Amino acid sequence: GATLCDERNINDTINTNLTGMMNTCATVLPYMDKAQLGKGGLIVNVTSVVGLDPSPVFCAYSASKFGVIGFTRSLADPLYYTQNGVAVMAVCCGPTKMFVDRELTAFLSYGQPFVDRLRTAPCQSATICAKNIVKAIECAENGRIWIADKGGLE
To answer: Coiled-coil regions in this chain (predicted)?
Structure first.
């Protein structure tokens, strides 16, 4: 899915990262829901490790990713899963080359030196991250929150 980390534009960051994901889930669920003639299935929300721990540099981005994890955990409630047969899980990606190569801005200007250092910090390739997302999908555990970071999967 799309992701946006533009601390200068809070609305776009929240709308893209959180509201867009929620609307997508709301759109696909009726087609997957066994109670509505669907066949069940799996929803995988791809998010970020900054949704697990606060980020003083990327405040709006972090908040949007916390929201993704909260929404995922709520939707993965065993009661829903028993009723609709749709498993829901999230994969939290660590710093990934494709992401850090974008134009990134800090929420507060004095966080910008950290953003600049992030560009040269070790990070995983997009290919490795994608392979770990596939591994998580193969496990397909309802409610599971995976971490795909530093080339591994936890």
So the answer is: none
- Could you tell me the CA-to-CA distances from 63 to 33, 38, 39, 66 in Å, in that order? 29, 33, 33, 5
Do 148 and 90 form a contact (C-beta atoms < 8 A)? no
Candidates 82, 83, 78, 90; CA nearest to 25 is 90
Q: Which residue has the higher pLDDT, 10 or 110?
A: 10
* Percent of the chain at pLDDT exceeding 90: 58
Residue of 31, 61, 80, 110 marked active site: 61
Contacts (Cβ under 8 Å, ≥6 apart) of 119? 100, 101
64 pLDDT above the threshold of 80: yes
The CATH number of 10-153 is which of 3.40.630.10, 3.40.50.720, 2.120.10.30, 3.40.50.300?
A: 3.40.50.720
Q: Indicate if 31 belongs to the active site.
A: no
pLDDT exceeds cutoff 80 at 2: no
